[in-house]
Amino acid sequence: MRDMIGYCGLDCEKCDAYLATIHDDQALREKTAKLWAELNDAPILPEHINCEGCRVDGVKTVYCESLCAIRQCALKKGMATCGVCQDLKICRTVGTILSEYPDVLTNLSS
To answer: How far is the CA of 108 from the CAs of 67, 89, 94, in angstroms?
Structure first.
């Protein structure tokens, strides 16, 4: 499995926070911060939009580092991703991602 596939199966290389970080794109940081602040009703600022991927060493957004329940669960269980968890099909923690992005199952099985 590629390192840039998140614990949940989403592709970090397609995430705007990742893209803004690796390209040092301030305009994308600002656009992403505005969108994420609106979606989450939270004070997310452009300087919060820095991430190198949730399963690799390096900087992460505050959400990915500390608040993502999926990442926290996988780390606690010592799982490389949710794809190796026996509870994947019944898991409520990752269930929203699976229902909204069914292609993540392919990422998790690669």
So the answer is: 21, 12, 12
**pLDDT, tens digit, 9 for 90 and up, residues 66-77:** 889 999 999 999
Which residues are CB-neighbours of 75 under 8 A, at least 6 positions away? 7
Confidence at residue 3, expressed as pLDDT on a 0 to 100 scale? 87
Task: Yes or no: say if 61 and 19 are a contact pair by the CB < 8 Å rule.
Answer: no
Tokens coding 66: 């500390």
Handedness of CA 18, 19, 20, 23 (dihedral sign): positive
pTM: 0.86
Main-chain phi, psi angles of 3, to 5 degrees: -65, -25
Sign of the Cα torsion 26, 33, 73, 10 reads negative
pLDDT 10s digits, 18-43: 999 999 999 999 999 999 999 888 88
